[in-house]
Amino acid sequence: MSAPGSWSLPSLIEAVSPVLPGFTAEVLPEVDSTNSELMRRARAGDTRPTLLVAERQTAGRGRRGREWHSAPGDSLTFSLGLPLAPASWSGLSLAVGVAVARALHPDIGLKWPNDLWLQGRKLAGILVETASVVDRPGADPGPDRSPVRYAVVGVGINIAPRPPGEALATPSAALRELWPQAEAAAVLARIASPLAEALRVFDRQGFAPFEDAFRAHDLLQGRTVTLSDGTVGTARGVDGSGALLVHTAAGLQTVSSAEVSVRPSS
Ligand code: BTN
To answer: What are phi and psi of 51, to 5 degrees?
Structure first.
């Protein structure tokens, strides 16, 4: 676990505030899930741009109802919540992946839709959730009380290797393989501003500004993939909305992240 004070929240807040006005950040010694906590706060009317770091999550969540396990000190688990109003939400998790990978190391690849991989193993995962909430619930009805969409971007990164012998569905990588002195607080300091900036860009321009960078990191390009309905095909990159293009026996299929999981065939 990072030593008390090592998270340097004042400098993090100072760095991110110009990008996200009203930004605040907190370290929680323990919480069920930073995503769940930000969703609860937003539903209770707190829609400030907020970064929550957990030193320990007791019920960390992954995509598709999976659990996200992490040991204190061995991983960085945080969520950034903020009101967003993009013209289209397509490709948000891909844009987040691009921002996090670029902030960390050029050798990190992206496995559509939202995993960061290193040398054939999973290094990090992203869980994006949104809620329609009423801003300022105490305010009088009228223009002051408008519904807003609050997005919560959760990121879990393995910092230290998992203990040997631990059975995992997907073999994992750790950031210390690239950066031997990596500590969760320093990793967060490196990611927070680029992530905030990427979210602001996505809010205004959608996925388009991230398309080329995603292609440069795309691990599935040209690989044989199996969709969760059993269809097999060859990954052909992403379209302008971030949907995966898969060349199958039936032709080119467009796969959106909500529909399927994708794994490289063995
Ligand atoms: C995945 O790989 O399926 C996504 C994993 C996302 C894990 C992070 S850890 C911080 C945040 N809080 C959660 O409960 N989940 C995300």
So the answer is: -110, 125
Indicate if ligand 1 lies below 6 Å from the C-beta of 33. Answer: yes
Secondary structure element (H or E) that encloses residue 51, with its range: strand 50-54
Question: Mind listing the pLDDT tens digit for each residue in 180-211?
Answer: 999 999 999 999 999 999 999 999 999 999 99
| Cα distance from N-terminal residue to C-terminal residue, the chain | 36
Whole-number Å distance, alpha carbon 170 to ligand 1 midpoint, is 15
* Alpha-helical regions (H) of 140-231: 184-205, 211-217
φ, ψ dihedrals at 129, nearest 5°: -130, 150
CA 128 vs CA 41, 103, 107: distances in Å:
16, 19, 24
Number of Cβ atoms within 10 Å of the Cβ of 182: 20
Instruction: Give the containing element (helix H, strand E) for 66.
Output: none
Reported pTM: 0.92
Three-state SS at 191: helix
Contact assessment for residue 58 and residue 31, using Cβ atoms and an 8 Å cutoff: yes
Does residue 35 have its Cβ closer than 6 Å to ligand 1?
yes
63 lines ligand 1 (CB under 6 A): yes
91 Cβ neighbours under 8 A, 6+ residues apart: 202, 206, 207, 210, 238, 241, 242
- As a whole-number percent, the residues of the chain with pLDDT over 70 amount to 87
For 74-91, b/e burial (b = at least 16 CB within 10 A) is bbbbbbbbbbbebeebbb
Q: Which is it for the CA torsion 33, 31, 7, 71, positive or negative?
A: negative
